[in-house]
TrEMBL record:
This is PadR family transcriptional regulator. It comes from Halorubrum trueperi. InterPro entries: Tscrpt_reg_PadR_N, WH-like_DNA-bd_sf, WH_DNA-bd_sf. Residues 11-79 form the Transcription regulator PadR N-terminal domain.
Length: 98
């Protein structure tokens, strides 16, 4: 996960949170999150990179629509990232004493 861009991590998280989303569904989620339109020329090459890294699988819903699922490796990478993040965020929610 350390070699992914923030955008690629966001794609991976969006796909992990949905059951076999297609590219346009991922785009819609990211459009909302980034509060701007994500163009196809940015999204699809990054999806292909994640497939190439073995973090996503790409399947066909029909002849025009691809669906994406997170691989077991992708799930392990997400879990490892969350563990890494949590070590730094534990104190964020702790009450402060003065």
């Amino acid at each position: 996960m350390h070699d992914l861009t923030g955008f690629q991590r966001d794609i991976l998280y969006v796909i992990a949170g949905h059951e076999e989303p297609h590219g346009l569904a991922v785009k819609a989620e990211l459009d909302d999150y980034y509060e701007q339109e994500i163009n196809h020329g940015r999204l699809y090459p990054n999806l292909d990179d994640l497939v190439g890294k073995g973090l996503l699988e790409k399947g066909e819903l029909d002849k025009r629509t691809n669906v994406y699922t997170v691989t077991q490796r992708g799930v392990r990478e997400i879990e490892a990232r969350r563990e890494w993040e949590s070590q730094y965020l534990e104190d964020v929610n702790a009450p402060t004493t003065s």
